[in-house]
């Protein structure tokens, strides 16, 4: 919500408008605080709008004089915002990190026995952008099993997938150590995903969001009953946690997320998509030809529903303007000055600046029942998809289906070749191979 409007009239009009003055100012500030408490800049004052609505209300009460509390409205709002917006309960600076609900840490996929893995092999690879300036890998990935319950040391930001952030991990090798079959507990759901951070602190956002999505999903008692709904709620809760923990660092930092919760028992993939990372199925048709079946669609800001929501919140959807010319993809801006935030996606986690102009964290959900000819899935950041089409990626991965770790390496190598010898963006891939 970009504009807080407090309309002040006399007592008779106040009953009609449900309140004004300092109380309304406080309520307006508190409503903004829920999504933008990290920054005083989250509230835009519009005196002209307030005055105009004030005058219109007076026309309905021509014989009455307005109360002299317009200034009080602003004073009340300023008091509530003073010091960077204080918490609704009056304690502490809301721009400072807030404690998070303890959640159980997810169980890394590498710790599962062969029986628990349900005939799924997994390989993950995250390669950092290659340039002379040096770069922090902004991407994170998930390969784990959500765990129910809570844990006091949860939320530390450690990788739920169990491996280092700029790394290669392969799971599912029959020769790998596994827990005894007797000790194995039935595993119903597994979680896989890629989060592509952006901004100076994008890596912090993607790491925290990955950990919290896994934690919230495990804590949701409805997971077995409605995995799709539970996953959607987990993503939104993770976004709230990002605001609480990272506070002011979220203003111009965020992450995409494409997360797949796999029901290992019923062989169903529940997909949550926020942004422009992507998930694709590799299907082997009867004529032995490989087909790329998209599980998600990139959420671009010029998609009709996304653009309508953004414009309703006062945002602008347009390419970047350089030397008077519009260049590149459609992006989201605060106004026609085209200065910030410049996101090339319609939804994201974090990004406080963009949140005020209609960018939302709610994921687009979809579910896919695996067919016998669905042989593998590729989940990857746009570092891969900007260089390879769905068909190119599936065709290459299919040639190495017996070794998913080789497949993800080959995908990164081809991406590098397509980009003239160096990766132009962080490139993260999670590949799942399904046994027939």
Automatic annotation (TrEMBL):
The cross-references to Pfam families, in alphabetical order and at most eight, read: PP2C
Q: Know the name of this protein?
A: PPM-type phosphatase domain-containing protein
Q: Where is the PPM-type phosphatase domain?
A: 170-434
Question: What is the organism field in this record?
Answer: Alexandrium monilatum
- Drop me one GO molecular function for this one: protein serine/threonine phosphatase activity
Domain of life assignment: Eukaryota
């Amino acid at each position: 919500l970009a504009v807080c409007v407090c309309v002040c009239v006399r007592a008779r009009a106040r009953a009609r408008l449900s309140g004004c003055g300092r109380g309304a100012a406080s309520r307006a500030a508190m409503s903004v605080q829920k999504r933008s408490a990290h920054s005083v800049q989250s509230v835009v004052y519009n005196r002209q709008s307030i005055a105009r609505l004030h005058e219109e209300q007076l026309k309905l009460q021509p014989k009455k004089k307005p109360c002299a509390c317009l200034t009080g409205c602003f004073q009340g709002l300023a008091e509530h915002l003073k010091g960077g917006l204080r918490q609704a309960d009056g304690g502490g600076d809301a721009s400072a990190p807030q404690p998070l609900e303890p959640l159980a840490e997810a169980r890394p996929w590498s710790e599962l026995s062969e029986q628990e893995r349900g005939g799924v092999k997994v390989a993950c690879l995250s390669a950092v952008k290659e340039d002379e300036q040096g770069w922090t890998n902004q991407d994170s990935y998930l390969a784990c099993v959500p765990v129910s319950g809570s844990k006091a040391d949860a939320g530390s930001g450690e990788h739920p997938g169990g491996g280092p952030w700029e790394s290669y991990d392969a799971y599912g090798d029959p020769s790998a150590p596994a827990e005894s079959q007797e000790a194995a507990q039935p595993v119903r759901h597994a979680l896989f995903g890629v989060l592509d951070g952006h901004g100076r602190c994008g890596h912090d956002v993607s790491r925290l969001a990955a950990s919290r999505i896994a934690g919230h999903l495990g804590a949701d008692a409805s997971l077995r009953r409605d995995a799709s709904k539970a996953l959607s709620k987990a993503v939104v809760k993770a976004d709230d946690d990002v605001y609480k923990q990272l506070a002011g660092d979220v203003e111009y930092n965020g992450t995409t997320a494409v997360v797949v919760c796999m029901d290992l028992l019923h062989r169903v993939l529940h997909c949550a998509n926020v942004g422009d990372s992507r998930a694709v199925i590799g299907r082997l048709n009867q004529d032995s030809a490989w087909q790329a079946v998209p599980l998600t669609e990139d959420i671009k800001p010029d998609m009709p529903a996304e653009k309508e929501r953004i414009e309703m919140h006062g945002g602008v959807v347009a390419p970047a303007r350089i030397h008077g010319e519009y260049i590149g993809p459609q992006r989201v801006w605060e106004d026609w000055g085209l200065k910030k935030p410049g996101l090339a996606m319609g939804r994201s986690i974090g990004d406080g600046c963009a949140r005020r102009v209609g960018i939302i964290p709610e994921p687009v959900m979809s579910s896919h029942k695996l067919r016998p000819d669905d042989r593998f899935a590729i989940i990857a950041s746009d570092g891969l998809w900007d260089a390879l089409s769905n068909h190119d990626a599936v065709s290459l991965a299919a040639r190495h289906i017996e070794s998913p770790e080789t497949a993800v390496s080959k995908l990164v190598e081809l991406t590098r070749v397509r980009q003239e010898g160096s990766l132009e963006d962080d490139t993260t891939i999670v590949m799942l191979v399904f046994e027939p």
